[in-house]
Structures are given as structure tokens and as C-alpha cells.
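ERR on first pass: missing label on line 2. Operator R.T. fixed the label and resubmitted. Corrected input:
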Amino acid sequence: MRHLMSPLDFTTEELDELFDLAADIEIDPEKYAHVCDGKILATAFYEPSTRTRLSFEAAMLRLGGKVIGFSDAGSSSAAKGESVSDTIKVISQYADICAMRHPKEGAAFVAASKSEIPVINAGDGGHQHPTQTLADLMTIRSMHGKLDGFKIGLCGDLKFGRTVHSLINALVRYDDISFVFISPPELRVPDYITDMLKEKNIPYQEVIKLEDVIADLDMLYMTRVQKERFFNEEDYVRLKDFYILTKEKMDLASKDMLVLHPLPRVNEISVEVDEDPRACYFKQVKYGMYVRMALIMTLLEIDTEAG
Ligand code: NCD
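pass 2 clean. output:
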């Protein structure tokens, strides 16, 4: 039985197969409309989410399966003091696969170790968010045509942003990628990441101003300042509008630079940028659903030729 805790749980070849399957689902959704008939996905969300939870639910429903679950810890037995280990043992009796989001780093690992069904980490604290990374990689592969040979700028909250940590981890396995980390000093990418890049001899630079580097980027990954992970409101208020991607800043960028964002957006991309053909963040949402469909099928070992 396989789980998905980190994007590195799949080899790059396996990821390619997953993206090929997701691309085929996009082209011919009818072929996959009943491959999960009779199967149940549980969404165990201990932390707020719209996109990720609905994306999993839509993915399972589009495969013909059904969905059960809870969307905040307050409405689950966690409010009565039940442990994640016990909850997953219970869910294992009801469902065939579980997507779990939890505010604590490592919660999905604990769940996976006790589970009788595949567990997908749908975000654990500030740590990892592997299915967002799958959506990001699928978007890059579709829009850029390949997963190597580009310079990517990651901008915003690089300290607490789990999507950033997961994406960097996943990208270091591809050739000829360089990173530009754009953040205020307080929200720099954690040292364990820069240490890993140094060890692997992967080029990166750290800057504060987006305008200084935007012209050199092939891709810009914007992120929101992660309010819920701040210890005090004052710091959040001071940093929340540090970056705003505007039409003027987009004018400085190359005509092919892709703009990605895991969403939700707060103020960091002004809405006028949405009309720009380089803006890919709503496409990312669509790819996210197809890739989750492919992931559910893969973890449930459903024959990809069925249907
Ligand atoms: C991200 C997350 O939950 O980490 N959202 C998402 O799942 N697409 C990004 C965020 O909340 O900023």
C-alpha cells in the first residue's frame, strides 16, 4: 500500500506517468467517469481549505466515487480529544482512501503509519503540500513544455509557505533549474533548504526587491503571507503587503514569463494581472483537479486502461 506524504515519494518517471494519466483524463474525461464506482474518499481536514478539499472531492466524484469527511477540527472527534491515529483507524473502516490536512507538521505521517488505507498528505502545517506541488509541476509541464531548463522566482512568504518548500524539493530533481528567492528578510526560505541547494550545487540567489530580478525569470511563483502561522498580528500587518504584482511590474518581465500562485490570493497579485496571458494560476486549479484524479487512481491501483 502506498501513501503520498511528499512529492519525493514518486520517482520522476512515476511523476511523468502520473502527469500523462492526468493529461489523458483532461482530454477524455468520459473514459474515466466510472473507474472509481463503489469507492469512497474520506477528506479529513483539520484546517480550513476551500480549493484543496473541493478539488479532492471533485476529483473523486468525477471518477464515479463518493466522498465523506469533515472540513474543520471542531466538527470532528478531535474536538473531543481523539488522536489522529485513532481517527485514521476509524476512517480506514469506512473509506478506501483518505486525504488529510492538519495544522501540525508530521500529522499525515502519523496517520499513514496507522492507516489501513492510502493516505494523501493534503498539507501538514508549514511543512509540505505535495498535491499542490503535483498541480504546480503539471502546470509547468503543460505551459512550459518540460520540467527542466528554467529560472524560477519564488516570492512572498518563503518561510511558512509549505507549497514553496514542497515545490523546491520536487524541482531539484530536474536539470538546469535555478532559483531566485524573493522575500523580506523575516520570511526567508528556511536554512535546511538553502543548505540542501548548496550541497547539490544548485544555483540560487536571495533578494528583497521583485523589480530587481523579474526581467530574468522564466517563471514567477507568488505566495500569500501565511497569516495563520504568525505569532503576532503586528508582524503580519507589517509584512502582508510587502509584494504586490501589478501590471507595471509585469511590463518589466519577459513576454513568456509564467505567473503561478497556489491560491488563495490576498493582495499579492492585483486583479488586473488576471487578464494577462502569462497568468496561469486559474489553470493551476484545473490541473490540480486532473492530477488528483490521476493520483487517486494510482494509489487505489485502478487499471488506467479501464473504463
Ligand atoms: C496553499 C496552502 O494551503 O498551503 N493553498 C492551497 O492549498 N492551494 C497556499 C496558501 O494557503 O497560501
